[in-house]
Specification:
The complex is a heterodimer of chains A (about 130) and B (about 425). Chain A has about 130 residues and is mostly beta strands. Chain A has a domain at about 40-125: Umud Fragment, subunit A, CATH 2.10.109.10. In chain A, about 5% of the residues lie in helices and about 40% in strands. Chain A contains 1 helix and 7 strands, in the order H-E-E-E-E-E-E-E. Chain B has about 425 residues and is α+β, with helices and mostly antiparallel strands. Chain B is about 40% helix and about 20% strand. Chain B has 14 helices and 13 strands. Chain B has a 5-stranded mixed sheet with strand order 5-6-1-7-8. In chain B, strand 2 (about 30-35) and strand 3 (about 40-45) form a beta hairpin. In chain B, helix 4 runs antiparallel to helix 5. The longest helix of chain B is centred in the middle third of the chain and has 21 residues, at about 260-280. The relative contact order of chain B is 0.11. The chains are: A mainly beta (about 130), B alpha+beta (about 425). The interface of A and B includes residues 85 and 117 of A.
């Protein structure tokens, strides 16, 4: 059967695994599972996408979770005019509008007949070069 | 006995859908995906099928359409399709505890004692899978695997079904089989279909109405099993574990014709290493290696040559270095100068479980331990840092003369950070 365990690979020996030749480490009794950034940052591995945004000299990694429901004022990755963009999703009078995050560009009306134009909702934003 | 239903879920035009996920502008455009080396069509979107593009159509026959933009072509992007396959299967496995991966885009789902309204549940599977993965699927449910295959095909054809069809009751099954051509049945190949048509059997229902004894006599046990499955008696089970392969082969045509021994050698070394790595992954040892070279059948203007050789490995092994040495010894024997080679490949045979293999390899215990440590380390490093981070020197550099042509490959969005989606602000 396929292995669907999508956890990160654990690193090898730790200084507390008992492989020392002198006294046993007092830390050996306090071993815990290491922090796994995959688990912290990705809630739904089968529905996650990542995208890069360069803005004001910053390199931002946008984590998108397709499983998350869209809600008012959330940020979404949207296909518009031949490119992917990060936009704000706003519900006004039961209609969904996509607003640019910056600038005076007009909002666009989201056509739910073309659901693929929204890749998914942004779940994390990671600043890659702080 | 409580009821059980089989489901067959599969991606709609899977490769084309994988490409569309990242290019929504291609939603209604004819898309084709090309084979290795951009040779011929291996997958089509519904719109490309409507244009009459057949599977296996050579790229040059539709080149004008591609150039003019009427047809959108992609080179196969197996890293992308592989990752989306994993996601699709992972998502489908949430809907029942009993499932089996059948192919790159097909999954059997077994529903035992489900008290749900299965019509509604099948629709739920389709919409949830699309929502979670972005991949459109179809699903057919029925009391046996063969009937589920029928239901799946009809679900795709019938737009009202919205991708989900359940054939649960006898009258539904009879109606479906009556409009299902016998040649489209799972397990009916060209020869069987021809024979049945000659006998006047045109639909699956007509096949089902044949006497069982007669089917057993004339269509062997496989045909009889299919006949029984059409009557609603499950004969095929869930295969829960993937069986190790009996042979492992890697072979490719080159991006261009090669005449230089060193170039072909480098390609063969890489194929042999790839085989060895797959061998270790399934924890097997190999006793024999076969290598082959061939010129292009399509270049009748050039002299033709094809040859292969099987080499017995001194001891069963999974060591890349030993396998590569044997491959090169084989290549030297079958290599002839002055031909324009189009393809080479390696195949490991006589595979056995690693423990049996080690017992048979009586000598060289210390060397074998060293080899095991080295190969494990190689696989581990390449697993973490990417394929061929550590490789044999004979595998050569990256500017490969034999590299595959993939002029239309989309970015590997999900497996390479530098090829991920780039957002415009």
């Amino acid at each position: 059967m396929y292995d669907f365990n999508q956890n990160s690979k654990e690193a090898g020996n730790t200084p507390t695994d008992g492989s020392t030749s002198g006294f046993p480490s007092p830390a050996a009794d306090y071993l815990a599972v290491k922090i796994d950034f995959n688990k912290v940052l990705i809630n739904n591995p089968s529905s996650f996408f990542n995208a890069t945004l360069f803005e004001d000299g910053k390199e931002l990694l946008v984590v998108v979770d397709k499983a998350l429901p869209l809600k008012n004022n959330c940020k979404v990755v949207v296909w518009d005019n031949g490119n992917w963009h990060l936009k704000k999703y706003r519900l006004i009078d039961n209609k969904a509008w996509l607003y640019p995050l910056k600038g005076n560009e007009k909002p666009i009306l989201y056509n739910s007949d073309e659901p693929f134009t929204i890749l998914g909702r942004m779940s994390r934003l990671i600043w890659m070069n702080p | 006995m409580k009821k059980q239903l089989w489901g067959l879920a599969d991606g709609n035009n899977f490769y084309a859908s994988c490409e569309r996920l990242f290019r929504p502008d291609l939603a209604k455009k004819p898309i084709v995906v090309l084979s290795n080396n951009d040779g011929c069509v291996i997958a089509r979107s519904a719109e490309a099928k409507e244009l009459g593009i057949k599977m296996g159509t050579p790229e040059f026959e539709i080149r004008e359409g591609i150039k003019s933009g009427k047809i959108i072509a992609f080179s196969s992007n197996y890293e992308l399709y592989g990752e989306l396959h994993n996601r699709l299967m992972h998502t489908l496995s949430r809907f029942t505890p009993d499932w089996e991966i059948y192919s790159v885009d097909e999954c059997w789902l077994l529903f035992k004692d489900f008290d749900y309204d299965m019509h509604a549940y099948a629709k739920h599977i389709v919409t949830e899978t699309l929502r979670l993965t972005g991949l459109p699927i179809s699903i057919g449910l029925a009391p046996t695997k063969t009937l589920a295959k029928v239901a799946n095909k009809l679900a795709k054809k019938d737009k009202n079904s919205k991708g989900a069809l359940v054939l649960e009751h006898e009258h539904e099954i009879t109606l479906a089989l009556d409009r299902f051509p016998v040649e489209d049945l799972w397990g009916v190949g060209y020869a069987k279909a021809k024979r049945l048509t000659e006998m006047g059997v045109r639909t699956a229902l007509e096949f089902r109405q044949l006497p069982g004894e007669w089917v057993k006599k004339n269509f062997t046990i496989t045909g009889f099993r299919m006949w029984r499955e059409l009557h609603g008696y499950p004969c095929l089970e869930l295969i829960e574990s993937s069986r190790n392969k009996d042979a492992i082969a890697t072979g490719r045509s080159f991006g261009k014709l090669l005449t230089n021994y060193e170039d072909v050698k480098e390609a063969l070394v890489n194929h042999a290493c790839s085989c060895a790595q797959k061998l270790r992954k399934q924890k097997s040892y190999s006793g024999y290696l076969n290598v082959h070279v061939e010129t292009s059948r399509f270049r009748s203007d050039l002299p033709q040559y094809a040859n292969d050789i099987t080499i017995k490995l001194l001891q069963p092994t999974d060591d890349s270095r030993v396998i590569v040495k044997a491959a090169l010894a084989g290549l030297k024997k079958i290599w002839r100068d002055k031909y324009h080679y189009n393809r080479c490949g390696a195949m490991l045979l006589d595979l056995k479980d690693a423990n049996t293999g080690k017992q048979e390899a009586l000598f060289g215990g210390h060397q074998r331990e060293q080899s095991e440590v080295l190969m494990n380390t190689l696989d581990r490093l390449n697993g973490i840092y990417g394929k061929n981070t550590i490789k044999l020197a004979a595998q050569g550099g990256d500017g490969k003369a034999w590299a595959l042509r993939s002029n239309f490959r989309s970015p590997r969005y999900l497996t390479r950070l530098d090829e991920n989606i780039k957002l415009k602000s």
